[in-house]
Write a structure and sequence with these properties.
By secondary structure, the chain is mainly α. Helix content is 79%, strand content 0%. It has one domain.
Length: 125
Amino acid sequence: MSVLLSVFLVIHFIGLAAVIGSFLFQVRRKGGFDTFWIIAGLITQLVTGLIMMGIIDATQHGGANHAKLGVKLVIAVIALVLAYVARARQKRADAGTASEKAALPFFHSAGALAIVNVIIAVFWN
C-alpha cells in the first residue's frame, strides 16, 4: 500500500506544479488568463488528496489528521470555484462583454489559495 500512496503523492505533486506553475507564469498579466492548467491541477489535487486520505485512514494506525485535511479541502474547493469564475470572466472579457481585468481578482485569489494550501501542508503537523 506504501507504493500506491507514493504513486498518488507524485500525481498530487504534478497537480500542484500545474496549479502554481501556471499561476506564477501568468501572475503579472492584467488579462488574458488561461485557467485550464489551474483547474486541471486543482481537480487532480482534490481527487488524489481524497484518495490518499482514504489510503492513510485504511492503513495507518493513527489515521490522517482530519482537521488539517478538512481545512485543506475547503481551501482547495474555494480555489477551484474561484478558478472557474476567473475562466467565465475571462471568456466574457475575450468576447468584449466585460472588462479586460474582470478575471484578475479571481485568478489571483485561486493562485494565492493554492499557495496557502502548500504552506498549511508543510507547517501544520
